[in-house]
Amino acid sequence: DIQMTQSPASLSASVGDRVTLTCRASQSIASYLNWYQQRPGKAPTLLIFGASSLHSGVPSRFSGSGSGTDFTLTISSLQPEDFATYYCQQSYSAPRTFGQGTKLEIK
Amino acid sequence: EVQLEESGGGLAQPGGSLRLSCAASGFTLSSYDMNWVRQAPGKGLEWISFISRTSGIKHYADSVKGRFTVSRDNAKNLLYLHMNSLRAEDTAVYYCAREQWDPFDLWGLGTLVTVSS
Fold first, then answer.
1. By the 8 A CB rule, do B5 and B26 touch?
2. Which listed residue, of A3, B7, B77, B97, carries a Cα 20 to 30 Å from B22's Cα?
3. A64 touches chain B (CB under 8 A)
């Protein structure tokens, strides 16, 4: 199975900050990398697919990049509703493994 | 409105069984591959099962293989997860998720399964 490792595990930031979250795959997954946001007590929602494509309705302050084994999710200017946990997921092969998540907290 | 809604969760005893359902509305279930994902309390997301559009392909995580069975009734727009030989470590919120080519583009609200004596 492909292992997905996210860093950091948690991050404190302020409204308006620019933040970058990292996800690393245990082997090359080309651009088969998706990002999800999960707010407390809610179901996950898709943010980015194919490493860099923004899902419909997702604000443009979110962006993704990377290929192969190293990927990043960047939020250009944090808004209050962005404080949540973010998960990466590889869709290169079964099983569709997730990273352990990065919890973004208000400083 | 396009949505998924899980049901069937609750309290089960170790070794017991439960059947979860996932009702699709606002779209045709038969057009999509589907997945089940679970989240133990305070933990991350764990993919557990996949079923293709026509049920021809099914995959399971090692943690549930041989105990859980995924099925679907496209005529009724329903997805199922049959869970047998339940263990305490199966305690989690269970989500159904629609797969749009690769990503999971639509998730249900989840249903809580608690395995305890």
1. no
2. A3
3. no
CB neighbour burial string for A48-65, b if at least 16 within 10 angstroms, e if fewer = bbbbbebbeebeeebbbe
pLDDT in tens, B40-98: 999 999 999 999 999 999 999 999 999 999 999 999 999 999 999 999 999 999 999 99
Collapsed DSSP state (helix, strand, coil) of residue B112: strand
Alpha helix ranges (H) inside chain A? none
Distance CA A55, CA A53 (A): 6
SS3 of chain B: helix, strand, coil, percent, to 5: 10, 55, 40
Work out the minimum CA distance from A18 to partner chain B, whole angstroms: 24
